[in-house]
Amino acid sequence: MWQAPPVTITTAGARFLAAFNDIEKHFRSTLRADVAVGFAQLIRDYGQRRPLSHHQKNALVAFASLRNAISHGTYYGGRPIADPVEVVVQEIEHLRQQIIEPPLALTVLKSGNVCRVHPDDPISIALEHVRAFGYSQLPVYDDAYVGVLTTNAIARWLADQLVKNTGIAEEEPVRQVLSFAEPGEDAALVPRAITVVEAIDRLSRSRLAGQLNTTLIITQNGMRTDKPLRLVVPFDLPILSKALAFN
Predict the structure, then answer these.
(1) Radius of gyration of the chain measured on its C-alpha atoms
(2) Where does the CBS domain start and stop, copy by copy (predicted)?
(3) Is the pTM of this model over 0.85?
(4) 138: part of which helix (H) or strand (E)?
(5) What pLDDT is recorded for position 142?
(6) Which of 54, 106, 165, 177 has the most neighbouring CB atoms within 10 Å?
(7) Is 113 in the same domain as 35?
(8) How many H-runs (helices) and E-runs (strands) does the chain carry?
């Protein structure tokens, strides 16, 4: 009596399935979803709770199709016709790492002392920071976070000085210049646990909302009284995005 040959899966296929199963298990555990919830729905639900990049979502959909082809597709000689190549296996293993242990923005970006000014500092100090280091945004702190002094606000202040024909008052306090900030020229305080995907999501959503000078200030717990650890600005988006690249 004829018997079908035993089903075997290649090492590459086994690695792919292991990575995919780990991702699915992580999704179900996080969402407390039972087996009746399909993988496409898991992606949508998980993305509402924890941001996933567009690239990650597309990859997950593609990997789900390959998983189905390996597990449920046509077999020939006991082996699935669909079999992932090494680069695909490496990509899903990297994606598994990104999702289960997402990289932190503070780890990806170079750390350094945050240059800040006090509300009572003369504007000349802020101008020197802009001249020497090319900063376009300076956080303002007294005992706690006050705001962000942008070069746009400085430009509006300078224009006001010229209109008044009073000369450039270099001893004018930072707090006075800060009053020339427009809505949207502010920062969001975020904890040091913010991930790369979350940072990209926060910056991107703010830019779409018209807040062109949006800054994230990473602190220990995202509190106004915390010491600033790192500024994250739209200029950092390419570096953050590169950290999510599969290759």
Answers:
(1) 25
(2) 109-165
(3) no
(4) strand 137-141
(5) 95
(6) 177
(7) no
(8) 10, 7
